[in-house]
Design brief:
The complex is a heterodimer of chains A (about 500) and B (about 280). Helix content of chain A is about 75%, strand content about 0%. With about 500 residues, chain A is mostly helical. Chain A starts with a helix and ends in a 17-residue tail after the last helix. Classes of the chains: A mainly alpha (about 500), B alpha/beta (about 280).
């Protein structure tokens, strides 16, 4: 606390520099769509922004991009440490700090809106917010969610009241202070952008330096502690990085939405990879792109608040990842599920054909006699819709295990007999296992027993055979149950 | 139970027992008391683990078995007592201790593979800010091979079965090349293959002269797997060689009877209207 206060004192002479940079009339009100509606940019404006010709735009865009990068990197560890919500409380707690810093600086006769001063105030209060959460958690027996919710609302309420007082102060111009709530890159000065750029770069480098240590902390903090890693300090460093990213993100994104920049990019990155390093870089990339696109769009359309655009851009990445992600994206999951369902259907049909053959030729061991079976027989046995049966049969015919004969009759080919025998064997081994060790199996496996046989690997087959020695001797075990219950396909 | 104590012991457990518990033994605990929210979990523990032997810590649920291990490692604060690893406090002997936590203690949906987790056991040796090199990966690979997981090194950890995850944790402790291993319920909820792998590993560690302290829940296998046993129910009921201590009488004392009265009394003592009912932060 003392260190922060002395930094504030140090900042005082610098406010003069900022004041010089501050152009008269550069005090736009917080962006509001209702005011004047959207103004679409002209082609020349668009070109200027895209080519980064405008010096001020260039600095702002670079600053916001790096901010996004830093937020993506720090956010990855924040998310993996399961502290994402703490950052929400932390960012809301900055508001009273901003208001107080403004009042203090105005009363001291300086420029109330010096970014450094406001950031310092925000940082002090975000730390206080975090400490409040920790104190509630430690001494009150309240659970995390209650502690977080309480601190968030109390500090935000305090901040709103102080903002009310700040805007009514006789001296000083509080207009534009609201941009810290919603974010507005347009009010950013060159000096501010430079400050954000350098700090974000520093935070990003710091985060990368601690890659190994943060990874261990997030995965298994108890183990890290037993190894002698200073878990408390590592957590503190991580939280300091979060505070730094939050406070420098205030002006660009606003305190309500800055948490999104910390959480959305790593959440999106998680859909693509199983490697921490890849997730970290992807998250940084998503964050940086969100910052870049968001601030560019906001620079083109002055009435769009930058924070909202940045967060919406990040959300677009998130939604894309949610569907198209290569590790756990929905499209992939659904495709895999459908592929599995189709395979199960084929295997079930092969088993039906095989067992119908068996029933016709009797249960004698030896060479399997194939027979042609009518479509209706199969339909009755499988209780599927005709369309589904036809589709599955079509697939089996094109792959080779089944051939069709005249009058809609179907027969296993030589290849089909081999495949079907394997499936039937798996099925019967599994059934025998369930009968012999049913209580063990149901306790260890939480999948429908009917589906298990389709996912048994060679390792598990061997295990089954060793558990059921009487079944592994003969090539094809007889069905362990004699009743012919109608079986529905999964 | 008596039947299994009578059973013929495997050769590696048959030799004579020579234990002289001193402060220099691998693990020495004196007068340890641990409490969660004023409710004692461990009470007046005195224990000395002999070197080079396999010791099981056995007791009912909530007896404080995991808490004992965590107290040794400094993960839970102790209200009183002294703990020594080879005569010195744990924080000066970390490099001598390998820890295998309960499998449930971490979120396995973490973006790392099996090899990455095992390499974490080497981080202390690697030191601050230095990256994991190929040499470290080879060491981690050897440890994975020792637990029969070499071919699953690239597997993302949530794609592993419970037993395989447990073996990853064992391998992570192995790479530390410690002298004493503390394992928290490694046999819980594992498949046959993993159980066999752990038993083989324990034997191998014993042959190398390492000391293992294993929290164990399956009473039937205690005489087969271990040479020492410590019966725990908030306090040490008995400890010593399995063939001496692992008796029906002692087990009755540990799992029922008078000790439950004691714990009831402690519970009543700790019952504070401000505390939520039945809150318990430790596992077993």
């Amino acid at each position: 606390m003392i260190r922060v206060r002395s930094r504030q004192a140090m900042i005082a002479p610098m406010t003069a520099v900022t004041a010089m940079l501050m152009m008269p009339g550069d005090v736009p009100a917080a962006g509001s769509l209702a005011e004047s509606g959207l103004e679409w940019p002209t082609w020349t404006e668009l070109l200027r922004v895209i080519s980064l010709q405008d010096y001020n735009t260039r600095v702002v865009v670079i600053g916001t991009t790096l901010l996004g990068l830093a937020a993506g990197l720090v956010g990855t560890f924040l998310l993996l440490r399961k502290r994402a919500l703490l950052s929400d409380t932390l960012s809301h707690a900055t508001l009273p700090g901003i208001a107080l810093a403004f009042m203090l600086m105005t009363l001291a006769g300086g420029d109330g809106k010096s970014l450094l001063g406001l950031i310092a105030g925000a940082a002090v209060f975000s730390v206080m917010g975090t400490l409040t959460v920790m104190a509630i958690r430690r001494w009150s027996r309240l659970k995390d969610d209650a502690a977080l919710g309480t601190s968030l609302s109390v500090y935000f309420g305090l901040g709103i009241s102080l903002m009310g007082i700040a805007t009514r102060m006789e001296t000083g111009n509080a207009a534009g202070l609201n941009s810290f709530i919603y974010g507005k890159t347009a009010s950013m000065l060159f000096f501010d952008a430079l400050l954000i750029t350098l700090t974000a770069l520093g935070a990003a480098l710091f985060c990368l330096a601690f890659f190994k240590e943060f990874g261990l902390l997030c995965f298994d903090s108890d183990f890290a502690a037993t190894q002698g890693w200073p878990v408390g300090w590592l957590d503190l460093i991580l939280m300091v990085l979060v505070v730094v990213v939050t406070v420098i993100g205030l002006q660009a994104v606003g305190l309500i939405l800055v948490v999104a920049l910390l959480i959305i990019p790593p959440s999106a990155a998680r859909f693509w990879t199983r490697r921490l390093s890849v997730m970290l870089w992807l998250s940084g990339l998503f964050g940086a792109l969100s910052g870049l696109l968001g601030s560019a769009v906001s620079a083109l359309m002055a009435n769009l608040p930058a924070g909202a655009v940045i967060v919406l851009t990040a959300t677009v990445f998130f939604i894309l990842s949610l569907f198209a992600g290569t590790d756990r994206g929905l499209i992939r999951i659904i495709a895999e599920r459908r592929r599995l369902a189709a395979r199960i259907a084929r295997e079930n049909l092969l088993r039906t054909l095989y067992e119908l053959d068996e029933r016709r030729s009797g249960p004698q061991a030896g060479v399997h006699q194939t027979a042609a079976h009518a479509f209706e027989t199969l339909l009755a046995d499988r209780s599927w819709t005709p369309t589904r049966l036809r589709r599955t049969l079509g697939r089996l015919i094109s792959e080779g295990p089944v051939c069709s004969e005249s009058g809609e009759r179907y027969r296993l080919t030589e290849k089909g007999v081999r495949t079907a025998a394997e499936v039937v064997r798996k099925h019967r081994l599994w059934e025998a296992y369930l009968i012999a060790h049913a209580d063990v199996a149901t306790a260890q496996v939480d999948m429908g027993a009917d589906r298990i046989e389709h996912v048994l690997g060679p390792e598990m087959i061997r295990e089954l055979e060793s558990l059921l020695p009487e079944y592994s001797k003969t090539g094809m075990p007889a069905s362990p149950h004699r009743f012919e219950a109608p079986k529905g396909g999964p | 139970m008596q039947q299994s104590t009578m059973k013929e012991k495997p050769p590696f457990l048959q030799e004579e027992v020579d234990i002289t518990p001193t402060a220099e033994s691998p693990l020495w605990i004196h007068d340890l008391t641990v409490a969660y929210h004023r409710k004692p979990v461990l009470w007046d523990i005195d224990l000395a683990i002999p070197e080079g032997r396999l010791t099981a810590v056995v007791g009912p649920n909530g007896a404080g078995k995991s808490t004992l291990i965590k107290a040794v490692l400094g993960l839970v604060p102790s209200a009183s007592g002294r703990i020594r690893i080879y005569g010195k406090p744990y924080r000066r002997q970390r490099h001598l201790v390998g820890y295998v936590p309960q499998r449930e203690s971490v979120d396995w949906d973490f973006p790392v593979n099996a090899l990455d987790v095992v390499a974490m056991g080497l981080y202390r040796k690697i030191g601050w800010f230095r990256p994991v090199t190929r040499k470290h990966r080879e060491t981690a690979m050897e440890a994975l091979a020792k637990v029969g997981m070499a071919d699953l090194a690239d597997r993302q950890i949530n794609q592993l079965s419970g037993g395989q995850q447990q073996r990853v944790f064992l391998a992570r402790a192995l790479v530390q090349d410690a002298r004493i291993y503390l394992m928290d319920e490694p046999f819980t909820g594992v498949d046959v293959a993993t159980e066999r792998a752990i038993v083989t590993l324990l034997k191998a560690l014993k042959e190398e002269g390492k000391t293992c302290v294993v929290v164990h829940h399956d009473l039937q296998t205690v005489p087969d797997y271990f040479d020492q046993v410590a019966l725990l129910n908030m306090r040490i009921v008995a400890d010593g060689p399995v063939n001496v201590v692992f008796t029906e009488d002692n087990l009755k004392k540990t799992y029922g009877g008078k000790l439950t009265l004691l714990s009831d009394a402690f519970h009543a003592f700790a019952c504070d209207p401000r505390l939520p009912k039945g809150e318990k932060r430790s596992g077993s």
